[in-house]
Amino acid sequence: MSFPNLAPLIPIYQNGIDNLLLQLGKPVKLFFKPTKIVVSEQDVDVLREEETLRPSYKTDVLETETENSIIIKGLLEFNPRDFIRLGERAQSDDQIVKIKTMLTDLPNLERAEYCVPDWHGDHSKRFKMFQTPIPQGLMESRYCVSFWKMAR
């Protein structure tokens, strides 16, 4: 069985998927491990408008956390049939989400602790990745698909 030359179809396929991502893609907020910043208390000289550090034995050390997140665009599919092959089961229709994004988002997807997809303004559901992202494309990998399960 021989396959026809697919080279003319590649740009058509890529343009179609790119247009879908641009026009119908939903924002997905990826959350990463928070950054902890250690801040020492400082005094401000009001007359000179300068900050003066106290000696180390007099400072109170404060630790603050900064949220790390990024918003990417992706095509969402809730309760896809594909996840059954991965050995996962869902109790309801919205517990598994399949996100298709550009391959350039792959490092962020792998680093994310959880994501919150924007589905009709609902930002209350957190999802954790249970399947590493799978590169996809016609003759070349340009997109990736990842599966996420609702976090408890």
How would you sum up this structure in a few lines?
The protein is mainly β.
Order of helices and strands: HEEEEEHEEE
For the largest beta-sheet, the strand count, sense and barrel status come to: 6 strands, antiparallel
Number of strands: 8
How many individual domains?
A: 2
Mean pLDDT metric: 80
Low-confidence stretches: none
Tell me the span between the first and last alpha carbons. Answer: 49 Å
Give the overall silhouette. Answer: globular
User: How many individual helices?
Assistant: 2
Percent helix = 10-25%
Q: CATH class of the largest domain, please?
A: Mainly Beta
- As an assembly, this protein is single chain
- Tell me the strand percentage band: over 45%
Helix and strand content put the structural class at mainly beta
CATH architecture of the largest domain: Beta Barrel
Spatial sequence of strands, sheet with the most strands: 6-1-4-5-8-7
